[in-house]
Amino acid sequence: MMRDEEIPFAYGTEMREYFARYLTEVEGKAASTAGHYQAALNTISRFMRERHLVQRDIYEIGSIEQLHALWEIVIQDASFQQLNARGNRMYSAGYHQYDEFVQGHGFCELAERLSELDVPMAVVKPARMEYKVWQRSGILRAQTIAAAGYRCELHPEHRTFIAERTKKPYMEAHHIIPMSQQDSFGHSLDVYANVICLCPICHRLLHHGLVAERRDIIDQIYEARKERFVHSGLGMGKEDFERVALGKCGG
């Protein structure tokens, strides 16, 4: 199995156990109700296995984004739609109950009761995965941060802690066009023009912030660096730049 820069599956059984205990111990659902939800997820898992979406069951999926993507495949399956309709949508209800659990909906209100989920878990043997990671230069990242004077290039006023290794303000290097997009380019993305020094907050924003806010920042970077991108063999129009920079951010 090949994955670019990420391993979206966590091969463990803890989510099955946690979800079962959450339904009964935290939400206080009857054992029969919890059993219906778990049975629904078992059926969904069978569909996913038959379509080679998972190796074992839905509980092995370790990414919320991946969970949603695989559910979209299942819910669009005609045979599953028929089964779900015959079962008065019990299968989709089971999925949505699990989806709310993995996203932590209501956890803030239940924080004091989450200790009821504490239980020893068996150690699962690690799974061997193959995935592709494009090489990137640590020297280039360090040089980029030093060249920026250990200040965030988007918001120089942002302050961080002092890093033990450098004795300088802690900063992070970010590939503006993600390295995961390298297959689409004939020239390296691991170049000075494509690396920017950011504080941790701005770095996380470019990975996980609202698309509209990320787009504004990407446009700002484009205007400041478009000539450098041309000289690095990465020249493109603004719309194409937005598309590749926002498509799949990877640092």
Question: Can you describe this structure?
Answer:
It is built from 9 helices and 4 strands; from the N terminus they run E-H-H-H-H-H-E-H-E-E-H-H-H. It is mainly α and 251 residues long. It is elongated, with a radius of gyration of 23 Å.
Descriptors for this entry?
disordered N terminus; mainly alpha; two-stranded antiparallel ribbon; 47% helix; single chain; 251 residues; 4 strands
Write the layout of secondary structure elements.
Blueprint: E1 2-4, H1 14-26, H2 31-50, H3 64-75, H4 78-86, H5 90-103, E2 130-132, H6 138-147, E3 172-175, E4 195-198, H7 200-208, H8 211-231, H9 238-247
Parallel strand pairs: 1-2
Antiparallel strand pairs: 3-4
Q: What level of helicity do the residues show?
A: 40-55%
Q: Mind summarizing the main beta sheet?
A: 2 strands, parallel
Overall 3D form: elongated
Q: Which secondary-structure class do the elements indicate?
A: mainly alpha
Q: Average pLDDT across residues?
A: 86
Oligomer: single chain
Low-confidence stretches: 1-11
SSE order, one letter for each helix or strand:
EHHHHHEHEEHHH
Number of helices: 9
In total, how many beta strands? 4
Instruction: Please tell me how large the radius of gyration is.
Output: 23 Å
Distance between the termini: 22 Å
The fraction of residues in strands falls at 5-15%
Strand order of the largest sheet: 1-2
